[in-house]
Amino acid sequence: MVNTNVFFSLAILSISIARAVPFKNATPRLSDDINPFCSSTENKTLCTSMINDAMTWPSATTNAIYETLKIAAKGKPMIDDLVNTLKDFGFSRISKDSIKHTCNEVNDFAIECLEGALDDIRYGYIDGLITKLSVVTGPSFECTNSVKKLGIDSQLFNYFLELELYSRICLSITRVTLKVL
Ligand SMILES: *[C@@H]1O[C@H](CO)[C@@H](O)[C@H](O)[C@H]1NC(C)=O
User: Fold this and answer.
1) Residues whose CB is less than 8 angstroms from the CB of residue 84 and which lie 6 or more positions away in sequence, other chains included
2) Residues 49, 105, 172, CA angle at the centre, nearest 5°?
3) Atom 11, ligand 1: which residue's CA is nearest?
4) Ligand 1: centre distance to CA 155 (Å)
5) CB of residue 158 inside a 6 A radius of ligand 1
6) Which is more confidently placed, 24 or 125?
7) CA–centroid distance for 77 within its chain
8) 31 has a pLDDT exceeding 90
9) 131 C-alpha to ligand 1 centroid (Å)
10) Which end of the chain offers a freer environment for a tag, N or C, measured as fewer CB atoms within 10 Å?
11) What is the predicted pLDDT for the residue at 70?
Protein backbone atom coordinates (compact mmCIF):
# COMPACT_ATOMS: atom_id res chain seq x y z
CA MET A 1 0.00 0.00 0.00
CA VAL A 2 2.78 2.36 0.97
CA ASN A 3 4.61 1.50 -2.24
CA THR A 4 1.55 2.32 -4.30
CA ASN A 5 1.20 5.69 -2.60
CA VAL A 6 4.84 6.49 -3.18
CA PHE A 7 4.50 5.51 -6.82
CA PHE A 8 1.37 7.63 -7.06
CA SER A 9 2.98 10.73 -5.60
CA LEU A 10 6.06 10.25 -7.78
CA ALA A 11 3.79 9.96 -10.80
CA ILE A 12 2.03 13.20 -9.89
CA LEU A 13 5.33 14.88 -9.24
CA SER A 14 6.72 13.80 -12.59
CA ILE A 15 3.59 15.00 -14.34
CA SER A 16 3.85 18.43 -12.75
CA ILE A 17 7.54 18.59 -13.66
CA ALA A 18 6.70 17.51 -17.20
CA ARG A 19 4.10 20.25 -17.37
CA ALA A 20 6.18 22.90 -15.69
CA VAL A 21 9.27 22.47 -17.84
CA PRO A 22 7.74 22.94 -21.28
CA PHE A 23 5.58 25.77 -19.98
CA LYS A 24 8.63 27.53 -18.62
CA ASN A 25 10.48 26.98 -21.89
CA ALA A 26 7.54 28.29 -23.87
CA THR A 27 7.32 31.53 -21.89
CA PRO A 28 8.42 34.29 -24.27
CA ARG A 29 11.57 36.06 -23.13
CA LEU A 30 10.73 39.01 -25.34
CA SER A 31 10.49 41.49 -22.51
CA ASP A 32 13.98 40.55 -21.24
CA ASP A 33 15.80 40.76 -24.55
CA ILE A 34 13.87 43.21 -26.69
CA ASN A 35 13.61 46.88 -25.86
CA PRO A 36 9.89 47.84 -25.73
CA PHE A 37 10.56 50.68 -28.21
CA CYS A 38 11.49 47.95 -30.72
CA SER A 39 8.21 46.03 -30.45
CA SER A 40 7.10 46.67 -34.05
CA THR A 41 10.46 46.86 -35.79
CA GLU A 42 11.47 44.54 -38.62
CA ASN A 43 14.82 43.68 -36.98
CA LYS A 44 14.29 43.67 -33.21
CA THR A 45 17.81 42.53 -32.34
CA LEU A 46 19.43 45.29 -34.37
CA CYS A 47 16.92 47.82 -33.02
CA THR A 48 17.62 46.82 -29.40
CA SER A 49 21.36 47.17 -29.94
CA MET A 50 20.87 50.60 -31.55
CA ILE A 51 18.84 51.84 -28.57
CA ASN A 52 21.57 50.71 -26.19
CA ASP A 53 19.45 50.36 -23.01
CA ALA A 54 17.85 53.82 -23.19
CA MET A 55 14.59 53.90 -21.24
CA THR A 56 12.99 57.13 -22.48
CA TRP A 57 11.84 57.75 -26.05
CA PRO A 58 14.03 60.81 -26.72
CA SER A 59 17.17 58.97 -25.61
CA ALA A 60 16.12 55.76 -27.41
CA THR A 61 15.56 57.63 -30.68
CA THR A 62 18.68 59.74 -30.20
CA ASN A 63 20.88 56.67 -29.61
CA ALA A 64 19.41 54.94 -32.66
CA ILE A 65 20.08 58.01 -34.83
CA TYR A 66 23.69 58.20 -33.58
CA GLU A 67 24.15 54.55 -34.65
CA THR A 68 22.71 55.46 -38.06
CA LEU A 69 25.11 58.42 -38.31
CA LYS A 70 27.98 55.96 -37.70
CA ILE A 71 26.86 54.05 -40.81
CA ALA A 72 26.57 57.33 -42.76
CA ALA A 73 30.13 58.25 -41.75
CA LYS A 74 31.39 55.26 -43.77
CA GLY A 75 29.84 56.77 -46.92
CA LYS A 76 32.34 59.43 -47.97
CA PRO A 77 35.55 57.36 -47.66
CA MET A 78 33.85 54.47 -49.49
CA ILE A 79 32.56 56.71 -52.29
CA ASP A 80 35.97 58.38 -52.73
CA ASP A 81 37.79 55.01 -52.76
CA LEU A 82 35.37 53.50 -55.26
CA VAL A 83 35.57 56.44 -57.64
CA ASN A 84 39.38 56.42 -57.40
CA THR A 85 39.42 52.80 -58.61
CA LEU A 86 37.93 54.11 -61.87
CA LYS A 87 41.27 55.73 -62.66
CA ASP A 88 42.56 52.70 -64.51
CA PHE A 89 39.61 52.54 -66.85
CA GLY A 90 40.29 55.81 -68.59
CA PHE A 91 37.55 57.99 -67.17
CA SER A 92 38.07 61.67 -67.56
CA ARG A 93 38.84 63.64 -64.46
CA ILE A 94 35.62 65.60 -64.95
CA SER A 95 33.32 62.58 -65.03
CA LYS A 96 35.01 61.09 -61.96
CA ASP A 97 34.67 64.37 -60.09
CA SER A 98 31.05 64.58 -61.12
CA ILE A 99 30.28 61.07 -59.82
CA LYS A 100 32.11 61.78 -56.58
CA HIS A 101 30.22 65.04 -56.23
CA THR A 102 26.79 63.48 -56.87
CA CYS A 103 27.32 60.55 -54.50
CA ASN A 104 28.80 62.68 -51.73
CA GLU A 105 25.91 65.13 -52.08
CA VAL A 106 23.46 62.26 -51.63
CA ASN A 107 25.39 61.08 -48.58
CA ASP A 108 25.63 64.60 -47.13
CA PHE A 109 21.87 64.91 -47.54
CA ALA A 110 21.45 61.72 -45.45
CA ILE A 111 23.73 63.13 -42.74
CA GLU A 112 21.86 66.46 -42.74
CA CYS A 113 18.53 64.64 -42.33
CA LEU A 114 19.86 62.62 -39.39
CA GLU A 115 21.47 65.62 -37.67
CA GLY A 116 18.31 67.65 -38.28
CA ALA A 117 16.30 64.80 -36.77
CA LEU A 118 18.43 65.04 -33.61
CA ASP A 119 17.55 68.76 -33.39
CA ASP A 120 13.86 67.94 -33.88
CA ILE A 121 14.00 65.53 -30.93
CA ARG A 122 15.63 68.24 -28.79
CA TYR A 123 12.86 70.71 -29.66
CA GLY A 124 10.05 68.13 -29.61
CA TYR A 125 9.25 68.78 -33.28
CA ILE A 126 7.83 65.33 -34.08
CA ASP A 127 6.48 66.12 -37.56
CA GLY A 128 9.90 67.32 -38.66
CA LEU A 129 11.53 64.26 -37.11
CA ILE A 130 9.26 61.86 -39.00
CA THR A 131 9.68 63.75 -42.27
CA LYS A 132 13.49 63.74 -42.04
CA LEU A 133 13.75 60.08 -41.02
CA SER A 134 11.48 59.17 -43.96
CA VAL A 135 13.71 60.74 -46.63
CA VAL A 136 17.26 59.92 -45.43
CA THR A 137 18.13 57.77 -48.46
CA GLY A 138 15.43 59.20 -50.76
CA PRO A 139 17.83 60.61 -53.39
CA SER A 140 20.26 57.62 -53.29
CA PHE A 141 19.20 56.50 -56.80
CA GLU A 142 20.91 59.61 -58.18
CA CYS A 143 24.19 58.17 -56.97
CA THR A 144 23.56 54.51 -57.82
CA ASN A 145 22.22 55.40 -61.29
CA SER A 146 25.28 57.49 -62.06
CA VAL A 147 27.61 54.52 -61.43
CA LYS A 148 25.42 51.71 -62.78
CA LYS A 149 27.35 51.29 -66.04
CA LEU A 150 30.72 51.43 -64.25
CA GLY A 151 30.33 48.26 -62.20
CA ILE A 152 30.75 49.94 -58.82
CA ASP A 153 27.04 50.31 -58.11
CA SER A 154 26.49 47.14 -56.04
CA GLN A 155 28.68 48.23 -53.11
CA LEU A 156 27.02 51.65 -53.09
CA PHE A 157 23.61 50.07 -53.46
CA ASN A 158 24.23 47.79 -50.45
CA TYR A 159 25.55 50.72 -48.46
CA PHE A 160 22.42 52.80 -49.06
CA LEU A 161 20.28 49.74 -48.33
CA GLU A 162 21.93 49.41 -44.90
CA LEU A 163 21.54 53.13 -44.23
CA GLU A 164 17.87 52.84 -45.20
CA LEU A 165 17.33 49.89 -42.84
CA TYR A 166 18.84 51.84 -39.93
CA SER A 167 16.71 54.89 -40.79
CA ARG A 168 13.54 52.77 -40.98
CA ILE A 169 14.35 51.39 -37.53
CA CYS A 170 14.73 54.95 -36.16
CA LEU A 171 11.35 55.76 -37.71
CA SER A 172 9.67 52.71 -36.21
CA ILE A 173 10.99 53.65 -32.74
CA THR A 174 9.38 57.06 -33.20
CA ARG A 175 6.11 55.48 -34.39
CA VAL A 176 5.95 53.14 -31.34
CA THR A 177 6.51 56.18 -29.16
CA LEU A 178 3.65 58.11 -30.82
CA LYS A 179 1.27 55.24 -30.12
CA VAL A 180 2.31 55.27 -26.46
CA LEU A 181 2.16 59.04 -26.00
C1 LIG B 1 19.27 42.05 -38.25
O2 LIG B 1 20.37 42.89 -38.53
C3 LIG B 1 21.63 42.30 -38.32
C4 LIG B 1 22.68 43.37 -38.55
O5 LIG B 1 22.48 44.04 -39.75
C6 LIG B 1 21.78 41.10 -39.25
O7 LIG B 1 23.03 40.48 -39.02
C8 LIG B 1 20.66 40.12 -39.01
O9 LIG B 1 20.73 39.07 -39.93
C10 LIG B 1 19.31 40.82 -39.13
N11 LIG B 1 18.24 39.91 -38.73
C12 LIG B 1 17.13 39.78 -39.44
C13 LIG B 1 16.12 38.85 -38.87
O14 LIG B 1 16.93 40.39 -40.48
Assistant:
1) 96
2) 30
3) 43
4) 18
5) no
6) 125
7) 21
8) no
9) 25
10) N
11) 98
